[in-house]
Amino acid sequence: MALTQIFKTDSKRILSDSFMVFMYIAPWATAVITKAGWVYLGMHYPDVSLDPVITTLAVALLTPLNMGIVLGFQLLEEKEQGVFRAIAVTPLNNDLYLLYRFAITAVVATVMTIFVHELLGLVDINLWYLVLIVVVAACQIPLQALTIAGFAKNTLEGFAVMKGTGFLLLVPLLVAHFFAGESLSWLAGIFPFFWLIRAYQFAVENQLTQFIICIGVGITYTMMICGLLMKYYRISALK
């Protein structure tokens, strides 16, 4: 019953908040605009060369991060209201509560990401490769959410943290685009999103061994960081 009530409350909160509604609509709108722009450039400016892999990564596979931002602001609002402290004394403990929030958001983001990827339609990739990649992308949800909710004290600071973490995505994308063939590019592996990018590139090239390694490292590394962020969030939310 408690989880059902949380789901209903979250749904009402998202539908009543224009920013959160926008974050859910943005991936679809961006995919449609990008696809239309791609077709237009192909018809009128055939000499313009764009990278379909990087474009897809920048549009479709950022969808889970959008969902993580929405969840991060939800957790931040609940931290301000003392909801996390209240849950600590109920049968629904904090860890189960957070796991539920992450799981629901991950399921929604996974479905959305696959549909947005296919709507964009710039890269032809094996479905099973795509599903595994989206699993790694879904791991970014708690990372993004806990970064915002853990380090920000209010909504204003939340927006600042959200903007400040943009380089965590931008740097791996730039490295993958301009320095993909260089061994030093692997130094960008300190950024969790880098492993998602590399896994996608290897999937497109059908390099199974490298793909599996990047998937494994991506999930393990991201979950380790999420574990540390969860501990920090518990401390800040229970103050």
Question: How would you characterize the overall build of this protein?
Answer:
This is ABC-2 type transporter domain-containing protein. The chain crosses the membrane at residues 21-41, 53-76, 97-116, 128-152, 164-197, 209-230. The protein has twelve helices and no strands. The chain starts with a helix and ends with a helix. Helix 2 runs parallel beside helix 6 (94-120). The chain is globular and about 60 Å long. The protein has one domain (2-237). With 239 residues, it is mostly helical.
Rounded mean pLDDT is 81
Which class do the helix and strand fractions yield?
Answer: mainly alpha
**Helix/strand order:** HHHHHHHHHHHH
Query: What form results from the Cα inertia axes?
Result: globular
Strand segment count = 0
Number of domains: 1
What percent of the residues sit in helical stretches (DSSP H or I)? over 70%
Rg result: 19 Å
Question: Approximately how much beta-strand content do the residues carry?
Answer: under 5%
Biggest sheet layout: none
Query: Stretches where pLDDT falls below 50 for ≥5 residues?
Result: none
Protein name: ABC-2 type transporter domain-containing protein
Transmembrane segments: 21-41, 53-76, 97-116, 128-152, 164-197, 209-230
Keywords: Membrane, Transmembrane, Transmembrane helix
Organism: Veronia nyctiphanis
